[in-house]
Amino acid sequence: MGLEQISTHTVTTGNEVQEIILSGINSDNVHFLTGTNIQVGGSGGICDINPTTGGSSDTTSNINVAWIDLKSGGSFQKFGNNGQTDWRVTDGMNLAPFSASFFMYLYNMNSSSLNSNILMTVTSFNGSNLRGYQQGGIKTETTAHDGIRINTNQTGGGGFQNGTKFTLYKVV
């Protein structure tokens, strides 16, 4: 078993963006997505992920998640949300040097007969908390997806910052 890189994007200075689309999912293989050194240009930043169909974001409200959040500055929390439009990597991000990193397994993403589902592990630091959490989620529709959209709520030069990198692999 190995990884075959499908698509990657590294943000560079002067090319800060609010949205990144990684395409190339065209088989029923398990896929693997990584995000490293994720930084945004303003306090309160989020990083969300949702699948794409035909290269466009699929924002139907049919993603269900369950996750546990472990943090150094407080007790752990358990969450369960139904009817979301995305999988959230993190919220409340702060300015550099604070960042987040994650990896995500993507199952049945290209299938039009099975529900797409994910398993994600995240580590982040926002200045007051070192956080690590696990998330599982399912998209409760059977649509073949061809990629992943990653976005932040930070606009203008406040989008994803220099050094933020996202890579999509196929597990072979």
Largest sheet data: 8 strands, antiparallel
For the biggest β-sheet, the strand order reads 1-13-3-9-10-11-6-7
> What is the element string, with H for helices and E for strands?
EEEEEEEEEEEEE
Low-confidence stretches: none
Q: Which class best fits the helix and strand makeup?
A: mainly beta
Name the shape in a single word: globular
Q: Percentage of helical residues?
A: under 10%
**Whole-number average pLDDT?**
92
How many beta-strand runs? 13
How would you classify the quaternary structure? single chain
Compute the number of helices.
0
Cα gyration radius (Å): 15 Å
The termini sit apart by: 6 Å
Strand content: over 45%
Index terms:
mainly beta; 56% strand; five-stranded antiparallel sheet; globular; 13 strands; single chain; 172 residues; eight-stranded antiparallel sheet; 0% helix
Q: What can you tell me about this protein's structure?
A:
The structure is a single chain. Helix content is 0%, strand content 56%. The chain has 172 residues and is an all-beta fold. A hairpin with a 4-residue loop joins strand 10 (116-125) and strand 11 (130-139). The protein starts with a strand and ends with a strand.
Strand and helix layout:
Elements: E1 3-10, E2 19-23, E3 31-38, E4 45-53, E5 56-57, E6 63-71, E7 77-84, E8 87-93, E9 100-107, E10 116-125, E11 130-139, E12 147-151, E13 165-171
Antiparallel strand pairs: 1-13, 2-12, 3-9, 3-13, 4-5, 4-8, 4-12, 6-7, 6-11, 9-10, 10-11
